[in-house]
Amino acid sequence: MAVDVSKQTLGFQAEIRQLLDLMVHSLYSNPDIFLRELISNASDAAEKLRFEALGSEALYEGDTDLAITVEFSEQQGTITVRDNGIGMSREEVIANLGSIAKSGTREFFQALTGDRQSDTQLIGQFGVGFYSAFIVADKVTVTSRRAGLAAEEGVRWESDGQGEYSVQGVQRKKRGTEVVLHIRDEHKDYLNGWKLRQIIHKYSDHITLPIQMPKEGEKETGYERVNSATALWARNKKDITEEEYNEFYKHIAHDFEAPLARVHTRTEGKLEYTTLFFLPSRPPFDLWDREARHGGIKLYVRRVFIMDDAEQLLPRYLRFVRGVVDTADLPLNVSREILQKNKVIDTIRAASVKKMLGLIEGLSAGDYEKFWKNFGRVLKEGIVDDVDNRTQIARLLRYPSTHEDNEEKPTSLADYVSRMQADQEEIYYLAADSFATARNSPHLEIFRKKGIEVLLLCDPIDEWVANYLTEFEGKPLKSVAKGGLDLGKLADKEEDRKETRDLKDLLGRLRKALEGQVTDVRASTRLTSSPACLVADDHGMSANLERILKQVGQKVEGQKPILEINADHALVRRLCEEQDEQHFGDWAHILFDQALLAEGGKLDDPAGFVRRMNEMFIAVAAGKG
Fold it and tell me: Whose C-alpha in 1, 147, 177, 433 is 20 to 30 A from the C-alpha of 471?
């Protein structure tokens, strides 16, 4: 088969051109990390080969000694990073090097702040480390062949980072990838063996694959290993420095910022395994996608890489965790299917979840605030997904409340319970689509009057979670917007007693006027200043949850609310006196629409609402209202 040497010239995505410009001129304050990123990619390629070769040993092509080679040439002005890992096909080269749309480029640029130090940290979140090569190089050439393909199916990718790249077929006998950097004049100091060794020792010493460089000296030939190639997690943690932990995290997480916290443990006994887990400081761009593969946990068996993103080792609500699990109790040919029904994995998973929840619980106040802001919304999923650990997860939850009345100062359920009034029997909450809607809701009026704290659930996930978290420390959770309000011993019977007035006629007229829109109309004990509010039945779906489900495309059969009226409000008293049924109907619909708007709802007939309001204003102005 002849090699197709025709060269195809293609254009980068507009976002990549923008990214490359930022890489070179703005973002990177430490150019050294270009080598770390290329070595990290080479290590990943080798691990992928090991995994795929478990099912097809022929992919090794007779060469099982995996290694990374780093070379330089002062004469040619180049640095070369070479691996004999999995390699890439032509299609993969174009997908991986010509487009990073799947890595969230648009989100990357939306997240840029303009602050150089802050924006630098974003790079790692979006998996774009390869492009750091253009910090020190004015041209990059990548030659690769995927394991299992014929020699004629090699491919060469080349670009100066200015807007276009070329791809052409080449003959390549060896599998794997070679990256050649043509170094810019201002970075010629990297064409130095001692300096390259220092960078490798600092950033990549923990790489389990041997990293080799040509021996230096007049009579020296061959290559020498320049990293220790010792699995960091297998070492005694007393012998590992903070810097080594941080660099290892940056390698496995492809992050540019140190982790927030870590836990490193070795378990011996019936099972032998080591775990090293990290909490990132910042969320990755795809954190909110539960179905995406997040590359969180790497599984090793006796220090041999088995698979990336081993989702069986930690539940999805901990998908932000990065780290490794190394065990001696699994076969090397273990598959994802086997992991799903494996008692060893079940044991490791249960213990790992406990470790991570314990690590989170032990964070300092400042670190926990940072963690919650970044990952709290995902952690809440554990209340639904993880029944066994629901109590511990509940202790980690934070919500704004009427105690602080500040969205930036959420409270724990434990702190809420500690502030409960002496005779209070329930934990009260209100779910709404925003903090502003919640804090201004008429449902809170009686609670504010009596000084009873209410949790304000403002995330879309919150009410879904509340359906599963029915109690905390023996205290039931109760929505203030559902069912009849019974404050129990907190109710002041004298204070709550309404003026003696026969409301039977008014309630009947309102039911008739709002027929088809409400299931009932009744006098309220919730309201002190608003004329009306809408509530759901005790076991019904709230309007807020109904809106959320509709927004995500679920078909929901609409449930009609209950209208509660404040018998002491001037508007309600005015309704009692209205004899004109047409005007009464208009007033009734205005009352309903106002209550709907107050809880963040959407009017079915906005124009009708405006017309009724205008007619009411005209009538009032004419002295007839």
Answer: 433
